[in-house]
Amino acid sequence: MKKSTQLEKKKKSNILEKKKISTDTAVVAKLKAPKDDKKSNKFAMRDNKFANNKPRASFNTPAKPTEKQDWNKFKQEKKELKLKRKRTRDTYDVIVEVKKIYEELKCHRAQNKSELVEKMYQMLNVGDNLAKVAKAHDTARVLQCMIKNAVPALRAELCDKLMPHAVDMCQSKYSHFCVQRMLKYGTSETKSKLADSVMGHVVRLAGHNIASKLLDDIYLSATDKQRCYMRQEFYGDLYKAAKDDNVRTLSDTYKDADNMKASIMSAVKANIDHIANKKLVDNALVHAVILEYFKEIDDEKMEETVSALAPLIPHLLTTKEGVTSSCLCFQNSTPKNRRAILKAIKEHLVKIALHEQGHVFLMTLLNSLDDTKATKKSIFDPLHEHLRVLAANPHGRAVLLWLIAPADTACFHPGLIQVLDKGLISSKKDKAVRRQEILEQIEGPIAKNITEDAAFWLSNSTIGLVTAAILKHITGEHYDKTAAALAPVVTQLDWCLTEFPADGDAKKPQDAETIIAEATEKRKKKKKEKQAIVEPTVDINDEKSDDDDADEEPQPKKTKKQIVKKVQSAAKESQIGIEDAGMHIVLKKIIKNDLTREGTPFGAKLLENLSEEVLKSWLGINRACYVLVTLVENSPELKKSLLVHFKSKDILNVLQSQKSSGAKMLAQKLELNK
After folding, report:
1. Are 637 and 646 in contact (CB under 8 A)?
2. How far apart are the C-alpha atoms of 17 and 23, rounded to whole Å?
3. Contact call for residues 411 and 469 (beta carbons, < 8 A)
4. Considering all CA atoms of the chain, what is the largest pairwise distance in Å, rounded to the nearest integer?
């Protein structure tokens, strides 16, 4: 009995252990298994913002058939909803009528435009409708067209209505175009009012992406007093509300109170850093403030500002103040910042070299960089491909001449040389050594460029002066090759000069009425040209009727100035090179420099390529005779070479028959008098 009871107990204990193991494995499996209940599904859907409200259907369940969308109906409903939303506005009916007139006004053939503008103004001049119209994307164009085509009195009245909203309009995506039209077509009084309207918000507008460019235009069109007031706002919040007539520059703010200097300088630095962080420094107002700040700070703070402005130097090179501040920035910078500046300007070197103000900064770099190899690599090599472009531009020529003949008073004003030499304070190498090293590296590539296209380098007198300066400074084999390439160009029978447009000429300011008048004149001319093409040609033998004569408008007579200009331009087009006054001086300079060289390569090649036909034509030109006099008066060898040509009786008779002073002097120098 005892044995049976013990066996039963063992069986029961085994069964209980098995059940316990099975329950434990079930709990573990339950914990590991993903939760599919509704509560967990809700949390999962809450975490995923792209999840639908309903749980996903399994792949096995068949998808419900969807109806095809009628897109035309959908677009129509959307259009009607948009129109319904617009009709709720107060200005809807007025704008619809104004747009109809605008469609007629913007047409080139429209007549009585001033009357149409006046009608539109009467419709819009109710409450604050003009401000609402200016800020809307579709009606801003309407207002721009009104400002353009209105008569001066109505334009001034319209601008006065918009003045209270000028600050908001400058920052608006669409209405800032209306402010541009106000600056373009408005009178000086309107521009002055616009400058007054932005007072108190100058720093905020200078740091705005859209308003920054407009603020630049407003600053340039403002009076000296208004410009001073606009600069004062950068000196601190104290000057935003009240302006001081005694404060002309930054140093005047703490002239009577030295304890104010630290706070004012920190305020100016904070404003400059804010604008620099937004990369909006391409502004004449900001350039003026930066220059004033640089003149007053110490070396430690200068380094902090330079590191922030180094990548933005190309944007500072558009004004005189910006160039001066950039030069100070480069002169007082560390080697690391100098490399950053060179890297920043590398892509824009040609534009900077051709710019009215920017080329001075480039000359400063050439004058103050001690590492001459880096100068060639980072400045000359990118410019080498564009040497002809530089030579054809007045500002590019200055950069090219500084490379060849730095600090030469024959090429540069002493005042400019003195300004550029101020940058040598931070230089360690002797300036004569540095300039000679640069010349040795660049004379070869420049000489090669001249030999490839010698005709261009003697195409007019201004480029010829650059060529003469190059020949004066290059040496050895490079000079011989260049002289040999230029001499055949001078001795060509059909050598004529080419006039290039003056890229450096500044545009003269014009009144708004003259701009509009010129635009209408151009349109009328185009219209007449089109009509002339369309109309059938009339037979020459057909006589004109009296009606045709009556319809013809009398052509305006040309003034004396117009006639003189036309004659001068025609003369320049057919101007013989040797006969030009400027080229005459260039050739004399080249020959005088050539006489100092051993073997006189240019003079020898010139006489070698001089044919009898060319010599006969030269003897009839007074200036050409003086060029030959310069050639032979100090060189017995060249005199002998030229006398060989006069063994021919024809050439001798031509010389003796001339009555010009140059021909007589040439005969005297050659001892060929009768």
Report:
1. no
2. 10
3. yes
4. 172
